[in-house]
Write a structure and sequence with these properties.
Largest sheet: 5 strands, parallel
Helix content: 40-55%
Strand content: 15-25%
Distance between the termini: 30 Å
Radius of gyration: 15 Å
Order of helices and strands: EHEHHHHEHEHHE
Number of helices: 8
Oligomer: single chain
Strand order of the largest sheet: 3-2-1-4-5
Number of strands: 5
Length: about 160
């Protein structure tokens, strides 16, 4: 069985589930999902620049639209449960947890403990972070010791 550590920041859509569950053909896949709440990891200015780059001007102009700190925990737990159930419904094994502190250290520990074969970072585009190689996938490539695949999440 192929083991993937999957880092997400929002619930998986049906398109995301189909995409990640079919990456390895007919081989069975087990997922360890790490939910990283955006409220704690993304700078408001960087999010606004990303929104402008994507042509989402209304989103760029909003102020304080995402929960922060403890308020981000419960929505992240619900998103994680929804995502785990969607992966299970697709026939995969799936466990996971919300990660708030030191996500790259946690990712590395999970990869080592589970002897994972790869890491998949499924995220919305973050152009500024990507340009400076400060996005999760770029940073993980230097830390986890297994291949890291970066995919863009879909919206329903």
């Amino acid at each position: 069985m192929f083991t993937s550590v999957l880092m997400i920041e929002k619930p998986l859509t049906s398109v995301d589930v189909e995409f990640v569950t079919t990456l390895h053909g007919d081989e069975g896949v087990s997922f360890i999902v790490l939910m990283q709440p955006r409220g704690d990891q993304a700078d408001v200015l960087l999010r606004a620049i990303d929104d402008v780059a994507l042509g989402e001007l209304k989103e760029a102009a909003r102020e304080g639209g995402e929960p922060e700190g403890r308020e981000a925990r419960r929505p992240a737990e619900l998103a994680l449960e929804q995502s785990l159930q969607a992966l299970r419904d697709a026939g995969c094994e799936a466990v996971g947890q919300v990660v708030e502190d030191h996500p790259l250290d946690k990712m590395k520990a999970v990869v080592e403990e589970a002897e994972a074969d790869e890491v998949i970072v499924l995220t919305a585009p973050h152009y500024v972070e990507e340009f400076f190689h400060r996005d999760w996938a770029s940073r993980a490539r230097h830390k986890v010791g297994v291949p890291v695949l970066k995919l863009f999440a879909h919206s329903e």
